[in-house]
Amino acid sequence: MKFSKNNAKFVRSLQLKKYRDKFNNFVAEGDKICKEILTNRQLKLKACFVSTAWQAAHPDLLSLYKDIYSVVSPTQMKQLSALRTPPEVLIVAEQQDWSFSALNLDSKWSLYLDGIQDPGNLGTILRIADWFGWAAVFCSADTTDLYNPKVVQSTMGAILRVPVLKVPLEEVKTRHNEISIYAAAMDGENVFRLSEAHPGILVIGNEGQGIRSETRAQIDRKIHIPKGPSAGAESLNAAVACGILCATLNQY
């Protein structure tokens, strides 16, 4: 894909979920995430737009993509980018299609996100799952879109390594009926005092509403992070709570 006004319009349209879904494409912007995509080589790329300086700095990397990359001017990059400060590199790629068959749920922990809405939270949670080597992140249908540009940016490359599937928790449990479902809940056991825990799925609820009733029906065990003796905060941010729970459960 070369630069043109029509192609710039197409790239900008991918900022909206309905067009990402329609074309099964998404946009990645910026040096780190784009270098990871180009190095990883597992995504099918539709276009790669680079500045003259970025081309000069990465000749070996770009040599693998001679058929799809093109050099654009700062003005042209501004027409392609949704960022306030246009990047030196921008990629259009096909969305990944992860499947259950590739997942190792029996011996590794996984996450289930029940209506997470904030793109920054989703991106951070994917980085947490990537850091601890968890098997997968499952999401309810109303969890924010994985390919929202803010999610893509905040994953810092984890989007390439962590399988993410939008599927009801009931279906996950049906496919793996021996797996244990844990949930972050204020009325749960103190996570720091668990005598034992076996790898399963940890449910993280919506930022404001928590875990919905139909998801609660699938839960086997509730856990919580205790407050300090002089704590004043009503709750923890969903991604922060997820990080603490993942770090603790990863010991089992």
CATH superfamily of the largest domain: SPOUT methyltransferase, trefoil knot domain
The tally of structural domains comes to 2
Number of helical elements: 11
CATH architecture of the largest domain: 3-Layer(aba) Sandwich
What amount of the residues lies in strands? 15-25%
CATH topology heading of the largest domain? Alpha/beta knot
Mean pLDDT: 93
Rg measurement, Å: 20 Å
Largest sheet: number of strands, sense, barrel closure = 6 strands, parallel
Total beta strands: 10
Which residues form runs of ≥5 with pLDDT under 50? none
Helix % is: 25-40%
**Net shape:** elongated
Which CATH class of the largest domain? Alpha Beta
Give the topology string: H per helix, E per strand. Answer: HHEHEHHEHEEHEHEHEEHEH
Strand neighbour order, sheet with most strands: 7-6-5-9-8-10
Distance between the termini: 48 Å
Category by helix and strand content: alpha/beta
SSE inventory with pairings:
Elements: H1 5-13, H2 17-23, E1 25-29, H3 31-40, E2 45-50, H4 52-57, H5 59-62, E3 69-71, H6 74-80, E4 89-94, E5 110-114, H7 119-132, E6 137-139, H8 149-155, E7 164-166, H9 169-175, E8 181-190, E9 201-205, H10 213-216, E10 221-224, H11 238-249
Parallel strand pairs: 2-3, 5-6, 5-9, 6-7, 8-9, 8-10
Antiparallel strand pairs: 1-4, 2-4
